[in-house]
Amino acid sequence: MEDSKVEEHKESFVPSACSGANACRELALDYSHEFTTHEDFATRDNLVTWVREVGMRLGMIMTVKFSNPGKNRRRRPYVVLVCERAGVYRGKKVPGQDDKGKGKRQTSSKKCECPFELKGQKMGMDDEEVGWVLTVECGSHNHSDFENFQGHSYAGRLTSEEMALVEDLSNALVKPKAILSSLKLKNPTNASLIKTVYNARLKIQFKENAGRTQMQLLMLKLSENNYFEYHRYLEETGEWKDFESEWASLVGQETEESFHKEWDVMKTNFFDYPDALTYVSHSWLDPYKEMIVSAWTNKHRHLGTYTSNRVEGAHSRMKKELGNSMGTFVMIWAHIDNLLMHQHTEIKASFEKSKNTYQHSYKVTIYNELRGCVSLYSLEQLKLEVKKSLELFLNEFMSCICDIRTTHGLPCAHELHGNVINRTPISLDWIDPYWKHLSMEPMICTKDEHLPTDAEEMEAWRAVFDQSDANKRVHLLMKLREITHPESNSLIEPMQNVVTKGRPGKKLCIDKSTRRNPSKFEYELHSSKDSCSPKIMTPESCIPISGIQKQREQLMPQPITVSMVTDIFNRSTGKSTVLEKLPVIYQ
User: Fold this and answer.
1) What confidence tens digit (pLDDT) does each residue in 100-126 have?
2) What does the H/E/C string look like for 524-542?
3) Based on the domain organization, do 166 and 208 belong to the same domain?
4) d(Cα 237, Cα 235) in Å, to the nearest integer?
5) Do 416 and 485 fall within a single domain?
6) What is the gyration radius of the CA atoms in the chain, in angstroms?
7) For position 217, what pLDDT does the model report?
């Protein structure tokens, strides 16, 4: 075994089993030093737990390749641990063959022949009370480390305690999303997804159902509890489904000519339903066809986002999370924070799946430079274009519309014609940077984009400030102070709880006087007197004028100069946030 005791990470070149250029990089890091230890472990479980904890800290997942308990003193017990991506795929799927069909899921594999390997061995026979030692067989990986553990099936497994918690909460009719939140609150390092909770609930239900269907269970429960039941079967017509299918085909037409032809066919097929055709025509096609029909939307870069109102979708998800309109601000914040946490978890899981999981239909030469470097959605779109390119080669009367280059920033069928014929990889440079950014970190701005400097923004703010009156200047300074001093703002708690419903009680402090409200000059005149002067009571809140004046003085911001803001900006780490808020202040 090679000596792996080094003081730092040692770069080494490891032969790659995967053919992706960036998915499994030739340049890898040697982690032998991190797993080299002189500690003796009491049991096999202690050794495996230590290895997995170190691996999780370094961004890798360890699994047991094989082990031998060495029973009856046949040999010394041992266990071999490898990377999650070690080995090769041994299934029946053929590389490049599309296995996605009706009722089937498109499968993939994480294996890329990672050579990393550790061996733990007992220092004696199985019946001897001795410890275990760990040796490093190979400390190098042929792929990059995992940025997140969401989406990795092994890291997202539920422990026995977590399974018991899922079962108890399911019996208490708790929603799966709330169950996942409970798991993550109990264990912050939990990498499970909502799919993991659904699978666990399905496993529990399968054990309880004992092979019965839902209808059989329902009939059984009704019979056990002496209910009288009556059921009927309603045969549905397929006319509405045909109408929906025709509408989907109409909206998906890629040219204006084909759209008008399809619309004429639809009017002919459903001439018995004039009200439905009138509604579709007057309410959707006439005013909004340029926004919903592919023949017009494909002229713009939309990156596969077809929704006409993303705010409605976000609002709908938030309402489902809240459940009702009852609750405090803190409770609403907790619900929204929980919703965002689940969304971030799903997004991170999709990124990890795109980087570390290779579907069998993409294990061909043409996708060699793209596997693990672009999202799976973009690969699915490219697969359709490759299929169109083959059809173009076989049918000379077909033409390429080139819409995917405009809408998604991906090469179209005629651009891929040479790659398909010559069986050469698609270049990564042909892909839009949007599909290559598999991270939650913001994208780095290109050189072509111009961002204003802090001096330019402060000069614009100063110009607006100089042209404003006194009240406007106070407002600008207050807004600027909220940026420079986030802990201080103009929001205060209500001084007293106001009952807005029912008849007011007799014991409440109610001013029944018919005296008019004081004018502004009376407030100012009264505030200039000493505190021993008579106090004018306002009929609204029964608060002395001196108290109101003190509150106003506390809310008035301290003078802020441009030099102070510039100094705070130079010491701030979130410069982009300050630059984004400055235009809002002086506009």
Assistant:
1) 666 667 777 888 888 889 998 888 887
2) HHHHCCCCCCCCCECCCCC
3) yes
4) 7
5) no
6) 34
7) 81
Q: How many CB atoms lie within 10 A of CB 514?
A: 6
Range of the domain at 119: 10-138
How far apart, in whole angstroms, are the C-alpha atoms of residue 246 and residue 285?
14
Q: Determine, yes or no, domain membership for 443.
A: no
Place of tokens 């003193």: 73
Q: How far is CA 232 from CA 105, 218, 222, 228, 229, in A?
A: 34, 15, 16, 14, 10
428/373 Cα distance (integer angstroms): 8
d(CA 287, CA 30): 62
Calpha distance 226→229 (Å, rounded): 9
Whether residue 166 lies inside any domain: the answer is yes
CA dist 439 and 350 (Å) reads 10
**pTM of the predicted model as reported, rounded to 2 decimal places:** 0.57
Domain assignment present for residue 496? The answer is no
Q: Is residue 303 part of a domain?
A: no
- Secondary structure (DSSP) of 151-197: T-TTTTPPPHHHHHHHHHHHHTT--HHHHHHHHHHH-TT----HHHH
Domain count, the chain: 6
Give the H or E element holding residue 558.
none
pLDDT for residue 468 is more than 80: yes
